[in-house]
């Protein structure tokens, strides 16, 4: 700031009226302010706020900002917005001298939203008109929806995609345009004279209450006739092992397969495999979708670091022809990585649970196994899990995964509409020593399929398409776990009857279907995930397996995450629910009994740094029962067939120290687990442990706290401190609210990365 001169201290924008997404609009209007009206604030330790080089105040910049904001409102379809401004100066005496602080306030009344009335197409070329009208139902423009320049631009992009998918290679955005209702279009012109605006408003007084606009998409006069020609694919050349060095034509070989000319320097790739993945067809009409599909296929395979497709117009042909040259630049075939890590694993209890762990990892990646871009990954890991007894778990794991870049199936499956279809073969063996409880050896193998449904936005195949669904189907998943129990665990089984069925040898023969998807819009991100697993439906019909170690169940779980980002803070929300239906039987010393709970390595649990943070890991629930909270069983881990959990965080920046971002968060966790439990003394079912909707309020646990986070960009260390606001264990006392809350009576959690 310059001494003795007024400077911009604070600029606020107040939006009047009932406006959808008001906060988002306010943020966008803030971005339209002239730089000379923006102030930068630096926060130290989350408390001290200091202005950084505030700009000198000049009233001219207020008018310039109003023009920018009005243009934004017009582009969003607001009809005749009004913006008024006020400012005042306050004088503050500081030790370094007198400060004249300028406070600026804009009052914004966006006005009515302009809505679409009719959408039409009037192209000069009959073929373009036919293509446009034939796919009009796919347009994002709908009658009565709000008008915006972005929607018009998206529709122009969509039309170009339609035309280019039908041979119009040279057509571009300069050739087509949108013509809007001339009167209304002039009215929303920010450069229009105010008296002229008044005249137009008078002629449109019937539209003022419900302003509408008509849009017609048209074609500019043709300057280059080749832009209206349909192009066909001519010669397609593929270089599967291209080099950035100058090409030496004397050392290469050439092969012709399926009409493609493949030029190669080594037998690094199988040539039929290369030909099978090229989507451009010689002699076919040029189709932009196939152009992008070819690029995406080779990019997603992983064997190539870069894909370059060059389309050349053949000058000596009377027919419009495009020759394609596809250069594929290979990645190094193998990569070996050995690393020491601090991490966590949320897969299951047989891995490292959800506690802070350290481990030594080795990973060998082969990007081009069998010369067909098949990826194989061989990995080994040794790690420990830290808990209340310092070292809680020791684990060793060896895994091998083969990733085939296609569907391998006894029946033919059409994959043209899918992105990155894959077949996955997984082999995994692990050894886990849960100190003082058990030792287990497990083996897992699975065969499954993975694919993505939904077009990439950069493909321009469906403009505006943001949802992409990743599916995984595993028709055969085999898991076997052999458990060696300690005397400590056997004693626990005498006190907790459900433990007799939980920690046993387990056989899983299951199939799994999972779906994950997400959508991002402006500053909001929403993620959804669902998973279904069933075990024993078919193989359980074999009585020996049913009464033996085969677990029979159906397990369903789903997760919802929503994030709202702001410049210096963000909101994060999560909802999770899961349920396991157990219907197997067990032969116990000649007695056939029903199994009531999921195997411990498939069960739900709560607590720890990634769940209900006011409780230690696997120390919450089930329900509001006190079965596990008696003096001799308080340290016993709890598992459930059902789980509900809701989490919310307000995350904000504090400062930066030596390049390390120091952030914080305020959070609240709500949830619990439920299971079928029996009192070991009376052998009666414990009703408080099972889920009942009438008991939901009493059973729900609530924890809240604060967090200190150190962000190193490549990983984040999180220190959480949480209090039990509502503990179901004390549901008989004031429904469990605020029991024994003291400053030092919280729960500390150490985590890596965000909790969700």
Give a brief description.
This protein is mainly beta. The protein has 5 domains: 7-112, Ubiquitin-like (UB roll) (Roll); 114-227, Ubiquitin-like (UB roll) (Roll); 231-330, Roll (Ubiquitin-like (UB roll)); 336-485, no CATH class; 545-756, Porin (Beta Barrel).
Describe the fold and architecture.
This protein is mainly β and 756 residues long. The chain has five domains: 106 residues, membrane protein fhac (Ubiquitin-like (UB roll)); 114 residues, membrane protein fhac (Ubiquitin-like (UB roll)); 100 residues, Roll (Ubiquitin-like (UB roll)); 150 residues, no CATH class; 212 residues, membrane protein fhac: a member of the omp85/tpsb transporter family (Porin, Beta Barrel), CATH 2.40.160. The chain is 14% helix and 44% strand. The strands form seven sheets. Strands 16-17-18-19-20-21-22-23-24-25-26-29-30-31-32-33 form a 16-stranded antiparallel β-sheet. The chain has a five-stranded mixed β-sheet with strand order 12-13-11-15-14. It has a three-stranded mixed β-sheet with strand order 1-6-5. Helix 1 crosses helix 2. The longest helix is centred in the N-terminal third of the chain and has 16 residues. The protein is globular, with a radius of gyration of 33 Å.
What is the CATH homologous superfamily assignment of the largest domain? membrane protein fhac: a member of the omp85/tpsb transporter family
The assigned structural class equals mainly beta
Strand content: 35-45%
CATH class assignment of the largest domain: Mainly Beta
Spatial strand arrangement across the major sheet: 16-17-18-19-20-21-22-23-24-25-26-29-30-31-32-33
The total beta strand count reads: 33
Provide the helix percentage: 10-25%
Mean pLDDT, all residues: 84
Count of spatially separate domains: 5
Q: Tell me, briefly, the overall form.
A: globular
Which value, in Å, is the CA radius of gyration?
A: 33 Å
Q: Indicate the low-confidence ranges by residue numbers.
A: 343-355, 456-465
Subcellular location: Membrane
Keywords: Cell outer membrane, Membrane, Signal, Transmembrane
Organism: Niastella populi
Domain Bacterial surface antigen (D15): 547-756
